[in-house]
């Protein structure tokens, strides 16, 4: 069946949902084991009350495993999943491949025009919305206000990396298992390389020059990696090469991190008194810069999409509508409070006076708006994407470089060795892929 015919049939079927009850349909939803997605699974009674004819089966996976499984399934047309959780990197590439179903026929009350322009733009290809954002994020500094005060320091709203290093040194007391800074070290293009790529932008580095020549042999990447390894070795927790988003979240909630630079979505978790021992002692600042005009913040949305191989596309659209519309935000607010609503997707949320009271709301929106995927670096580049390069090969080369840099953090190689290996590996792949003659 062609994509056009499938889309037409899907549109007709969605329109018929309101007038004819479907026989019970089971859909399989693949998602990441992040807190907002886990919370969604606890709110399914609302979905079933509205849609008793649809049964949802969940496949909840760690981030790297989810990406591997979903990529394999969609590239082979396996049809294992009806709804997949993917990000701003995958949507444009997969949409162009015809692997995703257009969501342009979501009902009018979904209000697609309410989606934040920066987020919606990253999920749209040739006028087709190919994924609906569940939450959007940038990255920012989360820090312990009590430890900063004890150190006699004040965190600027827009800090430099020098400010971060000074604060990390002042807050570190390893005898108390108190580490000045926690950063991603776990290998993965969306784990440590999301952080390091965004960080490198602020140091003036780039993955490729205008002719797709890898740049890991340039001084800007050397400065980035040296600074990162110095920060983590001197002021970070032990075993940091194994720590991704969830591991650092746990450390911060346990009071073991003075600062954590990571996804803005973490703000609701670190300030939740039910989970965080430091909930009332957290401040927020923009991701750091080096005075070069670029901050180390990224732009991302975890979004829900339908593979073209799904045989339950109508039910899948019904689920996506429920999980990403305004009513869902209100549902979470009624159960968990406004601070725990999935952030970063809708203009109306940031215009809501109740949500405006949330201490991290404005910093999150400012961070999202500060990221520029079309001009991510100080020097010109041939690619778009802030913490990733929007080419199909990036999933492979990003993971390879992530493994090399994680090994450097673990002390298995020097920064110079890691950069030389990264340069050689990426150069080989870019030649093999035809980017470089």
Query: Quick check: average pLDDT?
Result: 93
| Count of DSSP H/I helices | 19
Under CATH at level 1, the class of the largest domain stands as: Alpha Beta
From N to C, what is the helix and strand string?
Answer: HEHHEHEHHEEEEHHHHHEHEEHHHHHHH
CATH architecture identity of the largest domain: 3-Layer(aba) Sandwich
CATH superfamily of the largest domain: Periplasmic binding protein-like II
**Biggest sheet features:** 5 strands, mixed
Approximate shape:
globular
- For the termini, the CA-CA separation is 38 Å
Beta-strand fraction estimate: 5-15%
Main attributes?
437 residues; alpha+beta; D-Maltodextrin-Binding Protein, domain 2; 2 domains; five-stranded mixed beta sheet; three-stranded antiparallel beta sheet; 19 helices; 12% strand; globular
Walk me through the structure:
It is built from 19 helices and 10 strands. With 437 residues, the chain is of the alpha+beta class. It has 2 domains: 3-137 and 299-355, 3-Layer(aba) Sandwich (D-Maltodextrin-Binding Protein, domain 2), CATH 3.40.190; 139-297 and 373-432, D-Maltodextrin-Binding Protein, domain 2. Strands 2-1-3-10-6 form a 5-stranded mixed β-sheet. The protein has a 3-stranded antiparallel β-sheet with strand order 8-7-9, sandwiched between helices. Helix 1 (3-16) crosses helix 13 and helix 18 packs antiparallel against helix 19 (415-432). The model is unreliable at 1-22 (pLDDT under 50).
Give a short overview.
With 437 residues, the protein is α+β, with helices and mostly antiparallel strands. It has 19 helices and ten strands. The radius of gyration is 22 Å and the shape is globular.
């Amino acid at each position: 069946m062609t994509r056009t015919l499938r889309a037409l049939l899907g549109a007709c079927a969605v329109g018929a949902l309101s007038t004819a009850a479907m026989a019970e349909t089971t859909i399989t939803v693949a998602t990441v084991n992040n807190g907002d997605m886990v919370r969604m699974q606890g709110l399914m009674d609302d979905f079933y009350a509205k849609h008793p004819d649809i049964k949802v089966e969940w496949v909840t996976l760690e981030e790297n495993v989810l990406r591997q499984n979903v990529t394999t399934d969609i590239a082979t047309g396996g049809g294992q999943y009806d709804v997949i959780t993917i990000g701003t990197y995958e949507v444009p590439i997969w949409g162009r491949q015809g692997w995703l179903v257009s969501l342009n026929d979501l009902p009018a009350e979904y209000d697609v025009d309410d989606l934040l322009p920066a987020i919606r733009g990253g999920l749209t290809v040739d006028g087709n919305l190919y994924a609906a954002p569940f939450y959007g994020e940038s990255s920012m500094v989360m820090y312990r206000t009590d430890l900063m005060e004890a150190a006699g320091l004040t965190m600027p709203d827009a800090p430099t990396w020098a400010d971060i290093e000074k604060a990390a040194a002042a807050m570190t007391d390893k005898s108390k298992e108190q580490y000045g800074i926690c950063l991603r070290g776990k290998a993965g293009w969306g784990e440590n390389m999301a952080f390091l790529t965004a960080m490198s932008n602020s140091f003036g580095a780039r993955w490729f020059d205008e002719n797709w020549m890898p740049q890991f042999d340039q001084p800007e990447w050397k400065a980035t990696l040296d600074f990162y390894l110095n920060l983590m070795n001197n002021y970070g927790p032990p075993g940091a090469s194994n720590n991704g988003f969830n591991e650092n979240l746990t450390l911060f909630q346990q009071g073991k991190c003075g600062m954590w630079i990571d996804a803005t979505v973490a703000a609701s978790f670190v300030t939740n008194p039910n989970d965080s021992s430091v909930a009332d002692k957290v401040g927020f600042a923009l991701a750091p810069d080096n005075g070069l005009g670029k901050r180390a913040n990224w732009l991302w949305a975890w979004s829900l999409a339908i593979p073209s191989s799904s045989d339950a596309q109508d039910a899948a659209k019904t689920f996506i509508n429920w999980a990403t519309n305004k009513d869902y935000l209100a549902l979470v607010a009624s159960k968990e409070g406004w601070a725990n609503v999935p952030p970063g997707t809708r203009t109306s949320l940031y215009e809501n006076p109740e949500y405006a009271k949330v201490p991290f709301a404005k910093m999150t929106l400012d961070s999202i708006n500060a990221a520029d995927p079309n001009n991510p670096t100080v020097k010109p580049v041939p690619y778009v994407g802030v913490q990733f390069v929007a080419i199909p090969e990036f999933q492979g080369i990003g993971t390879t470089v992530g493994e090399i840099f994680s090994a450097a953090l673990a002390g298995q190689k020097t920064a110079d060795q890691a950069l030389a290996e990264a340069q050689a590996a990426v150069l080989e792949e870019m030649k093999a892929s035809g980017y470089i003659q």
